[in-house]
Amino acid sequence: MVTLQLLHKPSLHTLFSISSPQHYQQQPSPLPFHPRLYNVPRASASSSQKGPSTGRRQLIAETAAAAAVTASGFLIGGGNKAFAAAEEGLSEWERVYLPIDPGVVLLDIAFVPNDPSHGFLLGTRQTILETKDGGNTWAPRSIPSAEEEDFNYRFNSISFKGNEGWIVGKPAILLYTSDAGENWKRIPLSSQLPGDIHHRGSGTRTIREEERPRFFDSKAKQLCWDNAETVPGRHPQRWRKDAAGNIVLKRFHGCQGCLCFEFDHILPFSKGGQSVVENCQILQTRVNRFKSDKQDLKKNQLKGYSCDISFGDNELDIIEMAVYGDVIRLGKESRCRTINEMPDKNKSMDQIAA
């Protein structure tokens, strides 16, 4: 369990709830802040103080905070630069502790319109927290349909309309509820959706869906993984080598590190490539970004885009243990031992302490 702070730093870190209207003064705003109506170019402690340029994460944090205040009287924030509610009198804040791992970045918050005491908080590392007491306490929420695939989803946004709600994440995932979040089901996503796309703005325009699927489906991804080169001595459903020879870890799909990877079109989609297993390869994320829509690149060219780092077996063991909780190597399966299984030589020499 950690204590978080949000607007004081670029990452979300603390939830504060309003306990009583005292002390904090803010110049009234002609309209309540709403993230879909305003752009926030600069963060400040008050309307009369100018602060440094706002980074992307901080901007997201502030937007989420303002949305929470508008919807339910809650603010994600912290430190002496916390956002205050647009209404006068909302001033005293109480720290709320969140049951999340260090390093988790919170990205969005929403409360059920018909039940302001019921809300959800989303973040990286497949984080979903739920409150049913107006935000005083939060508990992890598990959604089994979001855990079927071997991905570590980043839940980016949540919104409600009445009792209907939607959660969107990356890699592409859409969760839907029709009963105010009591039950969530996963909506299968296809890059070739039926019908047309309608965009409402100043007018209505219709864009025809492309006939070619833009993304690989789950079957193609699994076959693409299975076709990739194996890593000697390591479990093939956990470790593979990409087209440049870089080692990647299956649970690190879609992230930015040197063991992360993406599914790539060998013949770029923009140049007519199909989203089928025959046109699929796994590439270290960094390599895939540099490759972009280039084609006919040789292995040594792809290697030139790669992270200039290598991992030994001991380092890979540590990473695998941290991610999966165990290490599977041919003939060398490993798990954490209990105290009773420890050899006598590791016991304390102080018999009283032992």
Question: Mind explaining what this structure looks like?
Answer:
- Pfam families: PSII_BNR (PF14870).
- The protein has helices spanning 56-72, 218-227, 285-291, 299-304, 313-324; strands spanning 15-20, 74-76, 92-96, 106-112, 115-123, 127-131, 139-140, 154-161, 164-170, 173-177, 185-186, 197-200, 204-207, 239-241, 247-249, 261-265, 280-284.
- The protein is of the alpha+beta class and 354 residues long.
- The protein folds into two domains: 15-186, no CATH class; 218-324, no CATH class.
- A hairpin with a 2-residue loop joins strand 4 and strand 5.
- It starts with 14 loop residues before the first strand and ends in a 30-residue tail after the last helix.
Strand and helix map with partners:
Elements: E1 15-20, H1 56-72, E2 74-76, E3 92-96, E4 106-112, E5 115-123, E6 127-131, E7 139-140, E8 154-161, E9 164-170, E10 173-177, E11 185-186, E12 197-200, E13 204-207, H2 218-227, E14 239-241, E15 247-249, E16 261-265, E17 280-284, H3 285-291, H4 299-304, H5 313-324
Antiparallel strand pairs: 1-2, 1-3, 4-5, 5-6, 6-7, 8-9, 9-10, 10-11, 12-13, 14-15, 16-17
Keywords: Photosynthesis, Photosystem II
Domain Photosynthesis system II assembly factor Ycf48/Hcf136-like: 90-196
GO biological process, one term: photosynthesis
